[in-house]
Amino acid sequence: MRTAPTILHLDMDAFFASVEQASKPSLRGKAVVVGGLGPRGVVATASYEARVFGVHSAMPIGQARRLAPNAAYLVPRFELYRTISEQVMRLLRALSPLVEPLSLDEAFVDLEAGGAAWDATSARLAGEKLRADIRAVTGITGSVGLAASKMLAKIASEEAKPDGLVLIPPGTERAKLEPMSVRTLPGVGPATGDHLRRAGITTVGELAEAGEDELVRLLGKAHGHALYAMALARDERPVVAERETKSVSVEDTYDIDIHDRTRVGMEVRRLADRCVRRLRGSGLSGRTIVLKVRRYDFSTLTRSETLRGPTDDPAVVREAAARLLDLVDTTGGVRLLGVGVTGLADYTQEDLFAQAAGDRAAEIADDSETTAEPAAEQRPAPGERRWPAGHDVRHTEHGHGWVQGSGLGRVTVRFETPYSGTGRVRTFPVDDPDLTPADPLPLVPPVPMVAAVPCRPGGPGPASEIHGASGAAADAAWADTGSGAEVETGPGT
């Protein structure tokens, strides 16, 4: 293990909910819950204000509403979350070439590999600068853990929440871990925790005292060896820059079971198209198509079909998913459907296009509709429009706002932006022609920039001429100049 705390773990604070609060001034400091809002929806993220009431991720949304009836309940805006995540990841990659993303809001960084830190002092400075840069670029906060191993860095970042930094000096790891619950260690879930508790082991210190042989007897060879090593603070895992994507999938849970076979087929077709859009967006193709069906009785079935080679053709994926659906009995009703692609590659097998039946001209016409941007799906014909809570809208008279709620033929909108004060609330008919869906606004106002002047010898480069930002934050802001940032031309010399 290292002799310096140069492994950093970043975990953004209540990421989805924090983005929504930063986007909506009226929700700052309030309880916010992001997730599926139907009867079978679950909580994706809860703000810290909502967690006070006992709301947490993966909780059924109905239970969350009972615990926090006055919270704001919003439908996720994943495209916005991905955009913010990309900004954060750019800042991390400015620190080191070894960045291991775990999710949209979490990553490990090897500071030593990038020369950003070599001892405790430089590691702390790098962590504090990262936190400041994240706030400057995105307007939201993240917590940082620093340690000599990945396990300890992650434990430190959890302790740092929210909006903090914790550094575990090398040599103090055992003392830090010993009083902690065994559930703190990776791989110790509720079942393993209960099993250890029945054996009289509740803390990491007791886990180490039990000895390797006893843990192997209790948990099996692989798990016992691994937990004993972790209890002794041993973790030699390196930060891995590239984590291979093993599958791409999408799924929907339905508020009311679907019984009509034709409707089930239409949903599978729609999910296949969404899956292909995500596949293409990642520059990937795949050769195994997977269909997931959860029936009325909660039984879950999966069926798969492997093609001759990888494809990203929507017609091929649709037809494979339809063939798989023919193998599943949906008579009693369906509560969840999913379509996925595995066996991923970064190329396509051209002759697979021949697998798509039907007239190719009709297929191309169909593709032109199904591969449209997701935003187009949010603009159905008047009278059929849906207004998801929390999503952005624009009114020709009142400007930019977001949906507070809709129903009974009306939609309520609060007109405010990330840079305004709390806005006014107005209600409109759901088919009001002056009200349209809108793209999210950046959480931080575009930073005015001064263009570089090449003829000025020794002058600062473009990234250093960004007013109000420096270092990695300036680089990240500079990378976004193509997205509408205002640029000023400095005076010539």
Automatic annotation (TrEMBL):
Site residues by UniProt (Substrate discrimination): F16
Compartment(s) of residence: Cytoplasm
Location of the active site: E106
Region spans: Disordered: 361-387, 460-493
Cited InterPro entries: DNA/RNA_pol_sf (IPR043502), DNA_pol_Y-fam_lit_finger_sf (IPR036775), DNA_pol_Y-fam_little_finger (IPR017961), DNA_polymerase-Y (IPR050116), DNApol_IV (IPR022880), IMS_HHH_1 (IPR053848), Rev_trsase/Diguanyl_cyclase (IPR043128), UmuC (IPR001126)
Binding-site residues, Mg(2+): D11, D105
Domain UmuC: 7-189
Catalytically driven reaction(s): DNA(n) + a 2'-deoxyribonucleoside 5'-triphosphate = DNA(n+1) + diphosphate
Annotated cofactor note: Binds 2 magnesium ions per subunit.
Biased composition (Low complexity): 468-485
Swiss-Prot/TrEMBL keywords: Cytoplasm, DNA damage, DNA repair, DNA replication, DNA-binding, DNA-directed DNA polymerase, Magnesium, Metal-binding, Mutator protein, Nucleotidyltransferase, Transferase
The keyword Transport is annotated on this UniProt entry: no
Cofactor dependency: Mg(2+)
Superkingdom of origin organism: Bacteria
MF GO annotations: DNA-directed DNA polymerase activity
Principal EC category: transferase
UniProt-listed Enzyme Commission number(s): 2.7.7.7
Quaternary assembly: Monomer.
HAMAP family, per database record: DNApol_IV
Classification via NCBIfam families: PRK02406.1, PRK03348.1
Family: Belongs to the DNA polymerase type-Y family.
Entry function: Poorly processive, error-prone DNA polymerase involved in untargeted mutagenesis. Copies undamaged DNA at stalled replication forks, which arise in vivo from mismatched or misaligned primer ends. These misaligned primers can be extended by PolIV. Exhibits no 3'-5' exonuclease (proofreading) activity. May be involved in translesional synthesis, in conjunction with the beta clamp from PolIII.
Protein name: DNA polymerase IV
Organism: Streptomyces rochei
